[in-house]
Amino acid sequence: MDFSYPSEVEEFRAELRDWLSANLTAELVAARRPPGRDDAAIELLRAWSRTMADAGWAAVSWPREYGGRGATVLEQLVYTEETTRARAPMPLNVIGMNNIAPAIMQYGTEDQKTTLLPRMMRADDIWCQGMSEPEAGSDLAALRTRAVRCAGPQGDDFVVNGQKIWTSLGHRAHWCQLYVRTDPDAPKHQGISCLIVDMTLPGIEVRPLVTLNGDTDFAEVFFHDVRVPADALLGPLNAGWQVATTTLSHERAGAARLYAEMQVRLEEMVDDIAAQSGALDDPVVLRRLGEIAVRIKYLEVLCQRSISATLHGGDPFASASLAKTVWGEIGQDMAALAFDVLGTGGANAAWANYRLTSRSLTIAGGTTQINKNITAQRVLGLPRK
Prior knowledge:
Layout: H1 7-23, H2 26-30, H3 39-55, H4 73-85, H5 94-107, H6 110-121, E1 127-130, E2 146-152, E3 155-168, E4 175-181, E5 192-198, E6 204-209, E7 218-229, H7 240-251, H8 256-274, H9 283-311, H10 316-342, H11 350-357, H12 368-379
Helix pairs in contact: 1-4, 4-8, 5-6, 5-7, 8-9, 8-10, 9-10, 10-11, 10-12
């Protein structure tokens, strides 16, 4: 792995640091956790997205014609490290920016690109992703939500029926990247299409889901004879699996955030434990903190291996999947330690909340079981059976 930064990348870093120092407020740092029920936090983060977009920092990896900076891989690495360490909020449209936008850039029509991408970047529209279903979570190809093409009084439409679940910000979204089955007779990976769906269409019912900590970051979405215009198709008909693969490959491209985020959490936890008299004198606590610190360093190496593979034409996917597994396990162990030491009231109950939300770390963005299969096949070279 070679991470020597050219002078132009260090200039990029300095420019970003200066801009963050001048624009990132304590209020924004406090609101950096993804919002669920808080309307005020939603509007604060929407305003932050607009501020970043106006300054050209909202989507540095995007091509310049869509409002980005066309950043190199090393510049993207620096961007992720610096924004995470500065404790800048994630974009309100983080799923849209990282996952959906690349698919629109690759498969969308010019009208879709020019109309949807600028509003997504500025969080004028909030996006959600319609993938998971009650019986199709990790196995996307098992989805059952159906779209039938038919002509109607208003023109050529897809009529959609089905259900999606665990849809992040689904109850707040204006648009959904929806995966549907359009050919039930084709092999399951070949009969899927992707639609860009206006969430205000008649027949869409959204029910927020309340998680363990009382938040409503997710929703279940029901489609009852929803007529979606045929020109809302993203990519070719029955090529939704290829669109999904494009989406997910970009989701794993930001590996640097995994270790940078955990390092920030560890620093915050140590500060909070230090504020509790005598806690850092306990050898058991020190040992557990030390083990987590070492594991975060291991995670950094894994992530850098993935980034190095991207730089040198290798396969970043395997290392990134392994890093995702390690990240989830570290997060859960850190949450357990904070809860054991600080209890339910540590740092105004923030760690008790993290203890609850950490259960999702080995599920969201790719379950540990699936990632271990990828590691077995692509890293260890084990056979599928």
